[in-house]
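User: My collaborator sent over this chain with a note saying "see what the structure looks like." That's all I know about it. Can you take a look?
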Amino acid sequence: MIETPARLEPMRLGDQSTGAINDVLAELAFKAGRLDNALRGRLQVEAADLVRLMNCYYSNLIEGHHTRPRDIAAAVEGRLSDDPAQRDLQLEARAHIVVQRAIDARFHAGTLGDPTAPDFIRWLHQDVYAEVPAGFRVLEGKTGRLDMTPGVFRHDPLHDVEVGRHVPPSSNRVGAFMDRFHEVYRERAGQAARARLIDIPAAHHRFAYIHPFPDGNGRVGRLMTHAMVLKAGMGAGGLWSISRGLARGLESREEYKQMLAMADSPRQGDRDGRGNLSLQALQAFTLWFLKVALDQVEFMTGLFDLDTFVVRLRRVVESDPDLDPRGAALLEATLMRGELQRGEAAGLTGLGDRMARTILGQLTARGLLISDTPKGPVRIGLPADHVDQLFPRLFYET
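Assistant: Without extra context I'll predict from the sequence alone. Here is the result:
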Protein backbone atom coordinates (compact mmCIF):
# COMPACT_ATOMS: atom_id res chain seq x y z
CA MET A 1 0.00 0.00 0.00
CA ILE A 2 1.33 3.45 -0.96
CA GLU A 3 1.83 5.80 1.96
CA THR A 4 -0.33 8.88 1.45
CA PRO A 5 -0.11 12.30 3.15
CA ALA A 6 -3.47 11.49 4.73
CA ARG A 7 -1.29 9.89 7.37
CA LEU A 8 -0.76 13.47 8.70
CA GLU A 9 -4.43 14.19 9.34
CA PRO A 10 -5.75 16.08 11.19
CA MET A 11 -3.42 18.89 10.13
CA ARG A 12 -5.43 21.91 11.24
CA LEU A 13 -7.71 22.44 14.22
CA GLY A 14 -10.21 24.80 12.60
CA ASP A 15 -13.49 24.55 14.48
CA GLN A 16 -11.92 21.94 16.73
CA SER A 17 -9.96 24.62 18.58
CA THR A 18 -10.84 24.55 22.28
CA GLY A 19 -11.86 27.46 24.48
CA ALA A 20 -8.58 27.23 26.36
CA ILE A 21 -6.61 27.46 23.10
CA ASN A 22 -8.63 30.49 21.97
CA ASP A 23 -8.03 32.23 25.29
CA VAL A 24 -4.26 31.73 25.09
CA LEU A 25 -4.25 32.85 21.45
CA ALA A 26 -5.92 36.13 22.35
CA GLU A 27 -3.58 36.77 25.28
CA LEU A 28 -0.51 35.89 23.22
CA ALA A 29 -1.49 38.27 20.41
CA PHE A 30 -2.08 41.11 22.88
CA LYS A 31 1.13 40.62 24.85
CA ALA A 32 3.31 40.10 21.77
CA GLY A 33 2.06 43.48 20.57
CA ARG A 34 2.97 45.06 23.88
CA LEU A 35 6.46 43.52 23.77
CA ASP A 36 6.92 44.95 20.28
CA ASN A 37 6.57 48.41 21.82
CA ALA A 38 8.98 47.79 24.70
CA LEU A 39 12.07 48.92 22.83
CA ARG A 40 12.51 51.13 19.79
CA GLY A 41 15.16 52.14 17.32
CA ARG A 42 18.70 50.86 17.50
CA LEU A 43 18.27 49.39 20.98
CA GLN A 44 15.63 47.02 19.63
CA VAL A 45 18.12 45.95 16.97
CA GLU A 46 20.79 45.30 19.61
CA ALA A 47 18.31 43.36 21.73
CA ALA A 48 17.20 41.30 18.73
CA ASP A 49 20.84 40.35 18.12
CA LEU A 50 21.05 39.12 21.71
CA VAL A 51 17.81 37.14 21.37
CA ARG A 52 19.16 35.60 18.16
CA LEU A 53 22.17 34.37 20.13
CA MET A 54 19.83 33.05 22.79
CA ASN A 55 17.72 31.24 20.20
CA CYS A 56 20.82 29.54 18.83
CA TYR A 57 22.02 28.59 22.32
CA TYR A 58 18.75 26.88 23.25
CA SER A 59 18.15 25.29 19.85
CA ASN A 60 21.58 23.65 20.06
CA LEU A 61 20.98 22.72 23.68
CA ILE A 62 17.85 20.80 22.65
CA GLU A 63 20.11 18.76 20.36
CA GLY A 64 22.50 18.05 23.24
CA HIS A 65 25.14 20.57 22.14
CA HIS A 66 26.12 22.97 24.91
CA THR A 67 27.97 26.01 23.60
CA ARG A 68 28.39 28.89 26.03
CA PRO A 69 26.86 32.24 24.98
CA ARG A 70 30.26 33.95 25.07
CA ASP A 71 31.69 31.28 22.77
CA ILE A 72 28.80 31.74 20.34
CA ALA A 73 29.36 35.51 20.37
CA ALA A 74 33.07 34.96 19.78
CA ALA A 75 32.33 32.69 16.80
CA VAL A 76 30.09 35.32 15.23
CA GLU A 77 33.01 37.76 15.52
CA GLY A 78 35.37 35.21 13.93
CA ARG A 79 37.21 34.28 17.14
CA LEU A 80 37.34 30.46 17.21
CA SER A 81 38.70 28.16 19.90
CA ASP A 82 41.98 26.28 19.44
CA ASP A 83 40.23 23.17 20.75
CA PRO A 84 38.85 21.26 17.70
CA ALA A 85 35.71 20.00 19.45
CA GLN A 86 34.84 23.44 20.80
CA ARG A 87 35.60 25.05 17.45
CA ASP A 88 33.22 22.66 15.68
CA LEU A 89 30.43 23.60 18.09
CA GLN A 90 31.19 27.28 17.51
CA LEU A 91 30.96 26.82 13.74
CA GLU A 92 27.64 25.01 14.15
CA ALA A 93 26.30 27.84 16.30
CA ARG A 94 27.53 30.51 13.92
CA ALA A 95 25.80 28.79 10.99
CA HIS A 96 22.51 28.88 12.92
CA ILE A 97 22.87 32.58 13.69
CA VAL A 98 23.81 33.46 10.11
CA VAL A 99 20.69 31.74 8.80
CA GLN A 100 18.38 33.31 11.39
CA ARG A 101 19.92 36.71 10.66
CA ALA A 102 19.10 36.15 6.99
CA ILE A 103 15.50 35.20 7.91
CA ASP A 104 15.12 38.37 9.97
CA ALA A 105 16.67 40.56 7.27
CA ARG A 106 14.38 39.13 4.61
CA PHE A 107 11.37 39.67 6.85
CA HIS A 108 12.19 43.32 7.48
CA ALA A 109 12.85 43.80 3.76
CA GLY A 110 9.50 42.22 2.85
CA THR A 111 11.17 39.39 0.91
CA LEU A 112 10.94 36.47 3.34
CA GLY A 113 8.60 34.29 1.31
CA ASP A 114 6.44 31.45 2.60
CA PRO A 115 8.17 29.61 5.49
CA THR A 116 6.29 26.36 4.74
CA ALA A 117 7.29 26.18 1.06
CA PRO A 118 9.58 23.22 0.28
CA ASP A 119 12.12 25.51 -1.41
CA PHE A 120 12.28 27.73 1.69
CA ILE A 121 12.75 24.74 3.98
CA ARG A 122 15.46 23.29 1.73
CA TRP A 123 17.19 26.68 1.80
CA LEU A 124 17.24 26.64 5.61
CA HIS A 125 18.83 23.20 5.69
CA GLN A 126 21.25 24.02 2.88
CA ASP A 127 22.56 27.18 4.51
CA VAL A 128 22.85 25.69 7.99
CA TYR A 129 24.66 22.54 6.93
CA ALA A 130 26.81 24.12 4.25
CA GLU A 131 28.64 26.01 7.01
CA VAL A 132 29.03 23.30 9.68
CA PRO A 133 32.09 21.05 9.92
CA ALA A 134 32.03 18.14 7.45
CA GLY A 135 31.86 15.62 10.28
CA PHE A 136 28.42 16.95 11.27
CA ARG A 137 27.08 15.76 7.89
CA VAL A 138 28.24 12.16 8.31
CA LEU A 139 25.52 9.93 9.76
CA GLU A 140 25.25 6.33 10.81
CA GLY A 141 22.36 4.83 8.80
CA LYS A 142 20.78 1.39 8.93
CA THR A 143 23.20 0.09 6.32
CA GLY A 144 26.29 2.07 7.25
CA ARG A 145 27.68 5.57 7.06
CA LEU A 146 25.76 8.21 5.14
CA ASP A 147 27.14 11.53 3.90
CA MET A 148 24.19 13.93 4.07
CA THR A 149 23.78 16.45 1.26
CA PRO A 150 22.67 19.85 2.63
CA GLY A 151 19.26 21.00 1.41
CA VAL A 152 18.15 17.64 -0.02
CA PHE A 153 15.09 15.81 1.32
CA ARG A 154 15.23 12.12 2.10
CA HIS A 155 14.55 10.28 -1.16
CA ASP A 156 16.41 6.97 -1.03
CA PRO A 157 15.61 3.86 1.08
CA LEU A 158 19.08 4.32 2.60
CA HIS A 159 17.67 7.49 4.21
CA ASP A 160 14.85 5.70 6.06
CA VAL A 161 15.04 6.45 9.77
CA GLU A 162 13.38 5.76 13.10
CA VAL A 163 13.04 8.48 15.74
CA GLY A 164 12.48 6.80 19.06
CA ARG A 165 9.27 4.82 18.58
CA HIS A 166 8.20 6.93 15.62
CA VAL A 167 8.73 5.70 12.07
CA PRO A 168 8.54 8.72 9.72
CA PRO A 169 7.20 8.40 6.17
CA SER A 170 9.36 6.36 3.80
CA SER A 171 12.07 8.36 2.12
CA ASN A 172 10.62 7.90 -1.37
CA ARG A 173 7.37 9.53 -0.17
CA VAL A 174 8.85 12.58 1.58
CA GLY A 175 8.35 14.83 -1.46
CA ALA A 176 4.61 14.09 -1.55
CA PHE A 177 4.29 14.66 2.19
CA MET A 178 6.10 17.99 2.01
CA ASP A 179 3.91 19.13 -0.89
CA ARG A 180 0.84 18.38 1.24
CA PHE A 181 2.48 20.13 4.19
CA HIS A 182 2.81 23.29 2.11
CA GLU A 183 -0.69 22.98 0.67
CA VAL A 184 -2.21 22.99 4.16
CA TYR A 185 0.03 25.48 5.97
CA ARG A 186 0.89 27.87 3.12
CA GLU A 187 0.22 31.58 3.43
CA ARG A 188 -3.15 32.71 2.18
CA ALA A 189 -4.09 36.20 1.09
CA GLY A 190 -6.27 37.90 3.66
CA GLN A 191 -5.69 35.21 6.28
CA ALA A 192 -6.23 36.58 9.78
CA ALA A 193 -3.31 36.65 12.19
CA ARG A 194 -5.17 34.30 14.55
CA ALA A 195 -5.57 31.70 11.79
CA ARG A 196 -1.86 31.88 11.02
CA LEU A 197 -0.89 31.66 14.66
CA ILE A 198 -3.04 28.64 15.47
CA ASP A 199 -1.46 26.71 12.58
CA ILE A 200 2.08 27.15 13.88
CA PRO A 201 2.08 24.46 16.60
CA ALA A 202 0.45 21.94 14.24
CA ALA A 203 2.94 22.76 11.47
CA HIS A 204 5.81 22.46 13.96
CA HIS A 205 4.76 18.95 14.96
CA ARG A 206 3.78 17.70 11.49
CA PHE A 207 7.17 18.85 10.15
CA ALA A 208 8.91 16.85 12.87
CA TYR A 209 6.60 13.91 12.11
CA ILE A 210 7.61 13.90 8.41
CA HIS A 211 11.30 14.23 9.34
CA PRO A 212 12.13 15.30 5.78
CA PHE A 213 15.94 15.37 6.11
CA PRO A 214 18.28 12.60 7.26
CA ASP A 215 19.37 14.91 10.10
CA GLY A 216 18.93 18.51 11.26
CA ASN A 217 15.13 18.46 11.31
CA GLY A 218 14.91 19.91 14.82
CA ARG A 219 17.05 22.94 14.04
CA VAL A 220 15.37 23.54 10.69
CA GLY A 221 11.92 23.08 12.19
CA ARG A 222 12.59 25.68 14.87
CA LEU A 223 13.97 28.14 12.30
CA MET A 224 10.89 27.55 10.15
CA THR A 225 8.70 28.16 13.19
CA HIS A 226 10.57 31.39 13.94
CA ALA A 227 9.87 32.54 10.38
CA MET A 228 6.19 31.59 10.70
CA VAL A 229 5.88 33.62 13.90
CA LEU A 230 7.38 36.64 12.12
CA LYS A 231 5.00 36.28 9.18
CA ALA A 232 2.06 35.97 11.58
CA GLY A 233 2.96 39.40 12.98
CA MET A 234 3.78 38.01 16.43
CA GLY A 235 7.58 38.26 16.40
CA ALA A 236 7.68 41.49 18.43
CA GLY A 237 10.62 42.85 16.49
CA GLY A 238 12.70 39.75 17.24
CA LEU A 239 12.48 40.25 21.00
CA TRP A 240 11.43 36.71 21.91
CA SER A 241 12.26 33.18 20.84
CA ILE A 242 10.33 29.93 21.02
CA SER A 243 13.50 27.86 21.43
CA ARG A 244 14.11 29.02 24.99
CA GLY A 245 10.62 27.90 25.97
CA LEU A 246 10.90 24.57 24.18
CA ALA A 247 14.23 23.84 25.86
CA ARG A 248 13.00 24.73 29.34
CA GLY A 249 9.34 23.70 29.12
CA LEU A 250 6.69 24.98 31.50
CA GLU A 251 7.62 22.63 34.33
CA SER A 252 10.30 20.28 32.98
CA ARG A 253 13.13 20.30 30.46
CA GLU A 254 11.81 16.99 29.10
CA GLU A 255 8.41 18.35 28.10
CA TYR A 256 9.25 19.23 24.50
CA LYS A 257 10.26 15.71 23.48
CA GLN A 258 7.44 14.24 25.52
CA MET A 259 4.84 16.48 23.90
CA LEU A 260 6.18 15.81 20.40
CA ALA A 261 5.94 12.07 21.06
CA MET A 262 2.45 12.46 22.50
CA ALA A 263 1.30 14.29 19.35
CA ASP A 264 2.48 11.28 17.30
CA SER A 265 -0.34 9.25 18.86
CA PRO A 266 -2.80 7.54 16.52
CA ARG A 267 -6.51 8.28 16.71
CA GLN A 268 -8.09 6.92 19.88
CA GLY A 269 -11.60 5.84 18.85
CA ASP A 270 -14.60 7.51 17.23
CA ARG A 271 -14.56 10.53 19.54
CA ASP A 272 -11.02 11.48 18.62
CA GLY A 273 -11.51 13.13 15.26
CA ARG A 274 -11.57 11.51 11.83
CA GLY A 275 -7.89 11.45 10.86
CA ASN A 276 -5.05 8.98 11.23
CA LEU A 277 -3.54 10.87 14.18
CA SER A 278 -5.21 11.85 17.44
CA LEU A 279 -7.16 15.12 17.35
CA GLN A 280 -7.05 15.33 21.14
CA ALA A 281 -3.28 14.96 21.10
CA LEU A 282 -2.98 17.77 18.54
CA GLN A 283 -5.21 19.98 20.69
CA ALA A 284 -3.07 19.24 23.76
CA PHE A 285 0.16 19.92 21.89
CA THR A 286 -1.21 23.18 20.45
CA LEU A 287 -2.31 24.41 23.88
CA TRP A 288 1.04 23.51 25.43
CA PHE A 289 3.00 25.13 22.59
CA LEU A 290 1.01 28.36 22.78
CA LYS A 291 1.39 28.47 26.57
CA VAL A 292 5.15 28.11 26.11
CA ALA A 293 5.11 30.99 23.62
CA LEU A 294 3.07 33.15 26.00
CA ASP A 295 5.43 32.34 28.88
CA GLN A 296 8.39 33.50 26.78
CA VAL A 297 6.69 36.71 25.66
CA GLU A 298 5.88 37.55 29.29
CA PHE A 299 9.42 36.71 30.42
CA MET A 300 11.04 38.88 27.75
CA THR A 301 8.61 41.73 28.44
CA GLY A 302 9.83 41.76 32.03
CA LEU A 303 13.48 41.75 30.97
CA PHE A 304 13.05 44.65 28.55
CA ASP A 305 11.00 46.83 30.88
CA LEU A 306 12.94 50.10 30.92
CA ASP A 307 12.32 50.85 34.60
CA THR A 308 13.92 47.60 35.73
CA PHE A 309 16.50 47.54 32.96
CA VAL A 310 17.96 50.87 34.05
CA VAL A 311 18.36 49.47 37.59
CA ARG A 312 20.35 46.53 36.21
CA LEU A 313 22.50 48.87 34.13
CA ARG A 314 23.34 50.85 37.25
CA ARG A 315 24.23 47.69 39.14
CA VAL A 316 26.67 46.62 36.43
CA VAL A 317 28.59 49.88 36.83
CA GLU A 318 28.36 50.13 40.59
CA SER A 319 29.49 46.53 41.17
CA ASP A 320 32.57 46.78 38.94
CA PRO A 321 35.61 48.25 40.76
CA ASP A 322 37.20 49.13 37.41
CA LEU A 323 34.30 51.39 36.38
CA ASP A 324 33.61 54.86 37.76
CA PRO A 325 30.14 54.66 39.38
CA ARG A 326 29.30 58.09 37.94
CA GLY A 327 29.11 56.38 34.57
CA ALA A 328 25.68 55.05 35.56
CA ALA A 329 24.21 58.49 34.89
CA LEU A 330 25.52 58.33 31.32
CA LEU A 331 23.98 54.92 30.77
CA GLU A 332 20.62 56.01 32.15
CA ALA A 333 20.53 59.16 30.03
CA THR A 334 21.51 57.23 26.92
CA LEU A 335 18.85 54.61 27.55
CA MET A 336 16.10 57.20 27.94
CA ARG A 337 17.17 59.32 24.97
CA GLY A 338 18.10 56.51 22.62
CA GLU A 339 21.52 58.02 21.93
CA LEU A 340 23.86 60.57 23.49
CA GLN A 341 26.23 63.07 21.94
CA ARG A 342 29.69 62.66 23.42
CA GLY A 343 29.92 66.36 24.24
CA GLU A 344 26.97 66.02 26.63
CA ALA A 345 28.85 63.67 28.98
CA ALA A 346 30.44 66.44 31.03
CA GLY A 347 27.15 68.16 31.74
CA LEU A 348 25.42 64.96 32.74
CA THR A 349 28.15 63.85 35.15
CA GLY A 350 28.94 67.31 36.50
CA LEU A 351 32.61 66.68 35.75
CA GLY A 352 35.17 68.31 33.54
CA ASP A 353 35.53 67.31 29.91
CA ARG A 354 38.63 65.21 30.51
CA MET A 355 37.13 63.11 33.33
CA ALA A 356 33.84 62.75 31.45
CA ARG A 357 35.71 61.45 28.41
CA THR A 358 37.58 58.99 30.63
CA ILE A 359 34.32 57.60 32.01
CA LEU A 360 32.83 57.48 28.54
CA GLY A 361 35.90 55.55 27.38
CA GLN A 362 35.47 53.02 30.18
CA LEU A 363 31.88 52.32 29.17
CA THR A 364 32.66 52.02 25.46
CA ALA A 365 35.62 49.75 26.17
CA ARG A 366 33.26 47.38 28.01
CA GLY A 367 30.67 47.54 25.22
CA LEU A 368 28.05 49.07 27.52
CA LEU A 369 28.02 52.04 25.16
CA ILE A 370 28.61 51.60 21.44
CA SER A 371 28.98 53.93 18.49
CA ASP A 372 29.20 53.65 14.73
CA THR A 373 32.21 55.99 14.60
CA PRO A 374 34.92 57.01 17.10
CA LYS A 375 33.45 60.49 17.51
CA GLY A 376 29.79 59.79 16.79
CA PRO A 377 26.91 59.58 19.28
CA VAL A 378 26.77 56.61 21.62
CA ARG A 379 23.92 54.23 22.37
CA ILE A 380 23.37 51.36 24.77
CA GLY A 381 25.25 48.15 23.99
CA LEU A 382 24.41 44.68 25.26
CA PRO A 383 27.79 42.91 25.60
CA ALA A 384 27.84 39.14 26.06
CA ASP A 385 30.23 39.51 29.02
CA HIS A 386 27.52 41.28 31.03
CA VAL A 387 24.48 39.40 29.79
CA ASP A 388 23.95 37.51 33.06
CA GLN A 389 23.78 40.79 34.99
CA LEU A 390 21.70 42.68 32.45
CA PHE A 391 19.32 39.82 31.68
CA PRO A 392 19.20 37.34 34.56
CA ARG A 393 17.86 33.87 33.70
CA LEU A 394 18.08 34.54 29.96
CA PHE A 395 20.41 31.54 29.73
CA TYR A 396 20.61 28.52 31.99
CA GLU A 397 22.01 29.26 35.40
CA THR A 398 25.44 27.69 35.81
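A starting point for your reply to your collaborator: Residues 84-109 form the longest helix (26 residues).
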